[in-house]
């Protein structure tokens, strides 16, 4: 498996012979409104041009439709006949934007040698914030000749993630670790401490931490996470914290 991390939750993943783009947020730096009153968004520029990011992409995998995960730039740039794997509740909105090959992943779905399974996620804790955020999900990717990947997505750490890790023992876990907050103080994705929990829950897994330093409601930086992980005894080669544009390969354990 090869991953090129782009920005926020956007990745180019080569897996089971397929080129997949995740949660495409392709807006120019500063072109979207603030979430936290600190800055316009995104706070970081794309590391590549949009054409380069979309080059050879054969499918798009979308966890939910918040604008930091599927923005108008991506909506307009991605060819409308591209297969889009998403939750069933998002198909109507995507169809309105003329995407014609929508493949809902409410349970699991096979695409060639790739199996995609939707996994529950919790985008906050309180009822009010969960209502504001709406439903989202993560995904489990498996293929006979590839490492298994559990992309947790926009979620705080909670018992079902712990149970999923224990059940599947994934080779790779992808966390959204920026510590984003809503209503000024409620955590809506994992922070450094929760990312360390994921590392400890999965001692045989490689953890890839993304969704940092791109939107103004995220409070955890890469440097923050690395420092806290080292203090917690998590080796650098177990917790990967890629820079925007960075490419890396992960093989079976």
Give the key terms.
7 helices; Metallo-beta-lactamase, Chain A; globular; seven-stranded mixed sheet; 26% strand; alpha/beta; 253 residues
Q: If you had to describe this structure to a student in words, what would you say it looks like?
A:
- This protein has 253 residues and is an alpha/beta fold.
- The protein has a single domain, classed as Metallo-beta-lactamase, Chain A (4-Layer Sandwich), CATH 3.60.15.
- The chain has 7 helices and 16 strands.
- The strands form 3 sheets. A 7-stranded mixed beta sheet has the order 6-5-4-3-2-1-16. It has a 7-stranded mixed beta sheet with strand order 7-8-9-10-11-14-15, with helices on one face.
- Strand 10 (149-153), helix 5 (159-168) and strand 11 form a beta-alpha-beta unit.
- Helix 6 packs across helix 7 (222-231).
What layout of secondary structure does this protein have?
Blueprint: E1 2-7, E2 10-15, E3 18-22, H1 50-54, E4 59-61, H2 72-77, E5 84-86, H3 91-96, E6 102-104, E7 108-111, E8 114-120, H4 127-133, E9 137-142, E10 149-153, H5 159-168, E11 172-176, E12 181-182, E13 186-187, H6 192-201, E14 206-210, H7 222-231, E15 239-240, E16 247-249
Helix pairs in contact: 6-7
């Amino acid at each position: 498996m090869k991953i090129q991390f782009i920005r926020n939750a956007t990745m180019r993943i080569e897996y089971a012979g397929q080129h997949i783009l995740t949660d495409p947020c392709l807006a120019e730096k500063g072109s979207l409104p603030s979430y936290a009153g600190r800055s316009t968004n995104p706070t970081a520029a794309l590391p590549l041009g949009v054409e380069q990011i979309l080059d050879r992409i054969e499918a798009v995998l979308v966890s939910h439709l918040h604008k930091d995960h599927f923005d108008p730039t991506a909506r307009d740039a991605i060819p409308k006949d591209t297969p889009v794997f998403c939750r069933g509740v998002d198909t109507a909105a995507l169809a309105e934007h003329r995407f014609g090959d929508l493949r809902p992943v409410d349970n699991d779905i096979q695409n060639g040698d790739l199996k995609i399974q939707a996994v529950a996620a919790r985008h906050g804790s309180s009822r009010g914030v969960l209502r504001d955020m709406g439903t989202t999900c993560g995904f489990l990717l498996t293929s006979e000749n590839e490492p298994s990947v559990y992309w947790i997505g926009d979620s705080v750490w909670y018992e079902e993630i712990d149970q999923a890790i224990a059940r599947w023992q994934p080779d790779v876990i992808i966390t959204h670790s920026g510590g984003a907050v809503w209503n000024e103080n409620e955590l809506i994705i994992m922070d450094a401490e929760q990312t360390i929990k994921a590392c400890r829950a999965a001692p045989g897994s490689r953890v890839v931490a993304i969704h940092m330093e791109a939107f103004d409601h995220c409070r955890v930086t890469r440097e923050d996470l690395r420092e806290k992980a080292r203090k917690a005894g998590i080796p650098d080669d177990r917790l990967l914290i890629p820079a925007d544009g960075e490419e890396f390969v992960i093989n079976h354990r």
